[in-house]
Amino acid sequence: MSAEPAAAPPSALQPGQPAPDFTLPSTPDQQLSLSDLKGHPVILAFFPADWSPVCGDQMSLYNEVLPEFRRYGAQLVGISTDGVWCHAAFAEQRHLHFPLLADFEPKGEVARRYGVYRVHEGTSERALFVIDASGLIHWSFVSPVGLNPGADGILNALDTLVEAPQETGVHP
User: Fold this and answer.
1) Which of 15, 85, 89, 123 sits between 20 and 30 A of 25, alpha carbons compared?
2) Is 83 among the domain residues?
């Protein structure tokens, strides 16, 4: 019996590569395309499943850090292979204020294009991509599935991408 290794190294897209465009459902009757966000930094947060404890903690953390991401002019987008109704319930329960996109059908198509689909589980890796305003991947990171990668890597990548965060408030 031959089987693929369970822990094959991820083949996530690397910095300098163009970010593949996609269009995915954000609600049962709305879609979002990566190209809709061009002109601003974009954070793609691929995660395995809405209701898992680590994913819930990760998405809640990003929701708390959202004002920092926005200071850089960055848009955060969560992506998993769950369906739109599952995302809607999860986002409502967690009070999330950023879109969750359903990479549901064809299953994991966008995760595959980014090199972060887990074939045996039918989910994505826990992977992060920071995309620059022109659509190039500036930074990518694949975390072990059971570990919350936090937000420091994203913020560091945004620091190197954007000269200075946009100030909030009025200065003389």
Assistant:
1) 15
2) yes
Q: Which of 146, 127, 104, 154 is nearest to 47 (CA)?
A: 127
Q: Is 86 a catalytic residue?
A: no
- Please give the pLDDT value at position 162: 81
For 113-128, how does the pLDDT look when each residue is reduced to its tens digit (9 = 90+)?
A: 999 999 999 999 999 9
Number of structural domains (the chain) is 1
Q: What is the CATH number of the domain that holds 128?
A: 3.40.30.10
Instruction: Return the ∠ at Cα 47 (arms to 43 and 53), rounded to 5°.
Output: 125
The boundaries of the domain holding residue 129 are: 25-161
Q: How far is CA 37 from the centre of its chain?
A: 13
In the set 55, 59, 111, 130, the catalytic residue is 55
